[in-house]
Amino acid sequence: MSKSSPKEGAFLSDVKELRRRAREHIDQGAVTTGYQADREKVIKVLNEALATEIVCVLRYKRHYFMATGIHAQAVAQEFLEHANDEQGHADRIAERITQLGGEPDFNPAGLVSRSHSEYVEGESLIDMIRENLVAERIAIESYGEIVRFLSDRDITSRRLMEEILAVEEEHADDLRDLMATLDPTQPG
Ligand SMILES: [Fe+2]
Ligand SMILES: [Fe+2]
30: CA distance to ligand 2 center in Å? Predict the structure, then answer.
């Protein structure tokens, strides 16, 4: 049991100060004095991601029911799975917004303008798959930007967005495979 070296000690050295700061503004819950991001900006950006997820849920649900109607069970199942994943993302983002002391915006008015991706219905099965792929690619771009914006200023929000980003990349990959299966003329 050697004592920690002065160098190690320098990291988080002042435990008393840490404890004092944690007790201060205790009503702010998870947001401590050490929170380095612009909280209002982070909440706004997370609300845009929330709107993006909600629009994705609605689009995938529409496509799920429409694809079911045209007897494309395997594709419909994929749409349903994605819809459920997007709902999970929306919930996690909303939860994080409240942790930061913000309010998750579920107001349907203005949802599409807050969202980064679009709600496109599509006519045929291949249209639907293509529109979902486009929406996933938009989400991938914008979540990448959000991750870089959060950087090391809000590690928890960044990790959340990184995890969601990884799932959107899987979704895009699934859709590209589906497109290649259904339409071999498309570059796989
Ligand atoms: Fe998502
Ligand atoms: Fe997705």
Answer: 28
